[in-house]
Design goal:
The structure is a single chain. This protein has about 350 residues and is an alpha+beta fold. It is built from 10 helices and 9 strands. The strands form 3 sheets. Strands 3-5-6-8-7 form a 5-stranded mixed β-sheet, covered by helices on one side. The chain has a two-stranded antiparallel sheet with strand order 1-9. The chain binds adenosine-5'-diphosphate and magnesium ion. Magnesium ion binds next to α8.
Length: about 350
C-alpha cells in the first residue's frame, strides 16, 4: 500500500472517530435533557443523577476540542437544563442552590479539563517540533562530519601537489579518491532524500546481480574477500527497475564484504519461485548485535568510522518501492544473511517512497 493511501486511511479513521465523538456529545446532551423533562413527579433523586450525567458530554467536548469544546458543551448543557430549572422552581432554597452548585462545578470541570487537555496538546506539539529540529540538526551534523574527512585529505594532498612534495601521481590519486568518496556520500544523501522513480522493465535478475558483483569487485579484492555467485542456468525473469535494484544489491553486497575478514567468502544466490524472485547475500563476517539489527534501517545509523549509514535505508526504500521484502538473519561473530524477495506481480510505475 502506498504511504499516501495509508495516510488517507488514517485520516479517514481519525475523521470517523471525531464524528462519532461529536455525535455522542450531541446525543448524550439531548438524551440527558429529555430524561429531565420526562421524569415528572418528585423523583428528585433521579434528577440529581441525570444532572451528574452532564459530566460525560462536557468531558468528551473538552477531550475532543480542548477548552473551547468543554465550555461550549457546558453552555449547551446549561441552556438545555435552564428551562427545567425554571419549570421546577420551588420556593425552598436548598434544592435550587444544590442545582446551581452542581452547574458551577460542571463549569469549573469544563474549564479545568479543557485547560489541561489544551496544555497537554501544546506540549506534545512543541516536543514534536523539538524532535524534528533535533533530527535535522543530527542529519546535518552527520553529513558535514562525513564530508569533512575526505575534504581535509583532499586539501592536504592538493597542498602537497602545489608545494611539489612527494610523488605527484600518488598525490593526484589521493585527491581523486577523496573526491570520489565525497561524491559517494553526496549521491547517498541525494538518493535517500529524493523519491525513487522506478522505471520498470522485464529483466534477468542474474544480470543485475552480475553487475553488482562487478561494481564491488575492487572492494572485495582489496579486502581479500571472495564473492561466490550461485545462479540458476536459466534467466531469472522479473519486472524491476534495473538501476535501482542494482544499487540496492550493491549496498547489501558491499556491507557483506566490509563485514568479512580476509579469505572469507560472501555468497550471493538468486532464485525464482512461482510467486517471487529472491536474492540472498550471505557472509561469515562480524554479524550484528541486537542493537545494530534493530537500527540497521534507520537513516545515518552506522558503526563504521567512514560509513554514511544510508546503504541499508536506501536498499530498503528500493525494495519497498518494488513491493518486496528485506529480511536479515544475523548473529554476532557468525555472519549475516540478507534475503530480498520481490513479488512477480507488476507494481505500477511511478514515484515510490519519499
Ligand atoms: P554503512 O555501511 O555506511 O555503515 P549501512 O546502512 O549500509 O551504512 O549499514 C548500517 C550498519 O549496519 C553498518 O554500519 C553495520 O554496522 C551494519 N551492517 C550492515 N550490513 C552488515 C553485515 N552484512 N554484517 C554486519 N553488519 C552489517
Ligand atoms: Mg553500507
Amino acid at each position: 500500500m502506498e504511504e499516501s493511501d495509508l495516510k488517507s486511511l488514517f485520516g479517514r479513521r481519525y475523521l470517523l472517530r471525531e464524528k462519532m465523538l461529536l455525535f455522542t456529545i450531541v446525543a448524550s446532551l439531548l438524551l440527558i435533557s429529555v430524561l429531565h423533562y420526562v421524569t415528572t413527579g418528585d423523583a428528585q433523586a433521579l434528577h440529581n443523577i441525570y444532572l451528574e450525567f452532564y459530566y460525560i458530554p462536557v468531558f468528551l467536548g473538552a477531550f475532543l476540542f480542548g477548552l473551547k469544546g468543554g465550555l461550549v458543551t457546558f453552555f449547551a448543557a446549561f441552556l438545555l437544563y435552564l428551562p427545567y430549572i425554571l419549570i421546577s422552581w420551588t420556593d425552598s432554597v436548598v434544592p435550587e442552590i444544590n442545582r446551581f452548585l452542581h452547574l458551577l462545578l460542571q463549569g469549573l470541570f469544563a474549564l479545568g479539563a479543557g485547560f489541561l487537555i489544551d496544555r497537554d496538546r501544546q506540549r506534545r506539539d512543541q516536543m514534536e517540533k523539538d524532535r524534528y529540529l533535533a533530527g535535522i540538526g543530527q542529519v546535518a551534523t552527520s553529513i558535514v562530519h562525513d564530508l569533512r574527512n575526505p575534504l581535509v585529505t583532499m586539501l592536504g594532498f592538493a597542498k602537497r601537489i602545489q608545494d611539489g612534495k612527494g610523488n605527484q601521481d600518488s598525490n593526484i590519486q589521493a585527491v581523486i579518491d577523496s573526491a570520489q568518496g565525497m561524491e559517494r556520500i553526496v549521491d547517498d544523501v541525494l538518493d535517500f532524500a529524493r523519491p525513487i522513480r522506478l522505471e520498470l522493465q522485464q529483466e534477468d535478475l542474474r544480470q543485475v546481480v552480475d553487475h553488482a558483483c562487478v561494481v564491488c569487485k575492487t572492494k572485495a579484492e582489496e579486502g581479500g574477500v571472495k564473492v561466490s555467485r550461485d545462479q540458476p542456468p536459466e534467466p531469472v525473469r522479473t519486472v524491476i527497475d534495473k538501476f535501482q535494484m542494482e544499487r540496492a544489491i550493491t549496498n547489501l553486497l558491499s556491507n557483506a564484504i566490509e563485514a568479512s575478514d580476509r579469505y572469507q567468502t560472501v555468497t550471493i544466490s538468486t532464485k525464482s519461485s512461482d510467486n517471487s524472485v529472491s536474492v540472498i547475500i550471505k557472509d561469515h563476517g562480524s554479524g550484528m548485535d541486537s542493537e545494530t539489527l534493530e537500527n540497521v534501517f534507520i537513516p545515518f545509523y552506522t558503526k563504521k568510522s567512514k560509513g554514511t549509514g544510508l546503504g541499508m535505508s536506501i536498499a530498503k526504500k528500493i525494495i519497498d518501492g518494488h513491493l518486496g521484502t528485506i529480511n536479515i538473519y544475523s548473529r554476532p561473530g557468525e555472519g549475516t544473511k540478507v534475503k530480498i524477495e520481490i513479488p512477480h506481480a507488476v507494481p505500477p510505475t511511478g514515484l515510490r517512497g519519499n
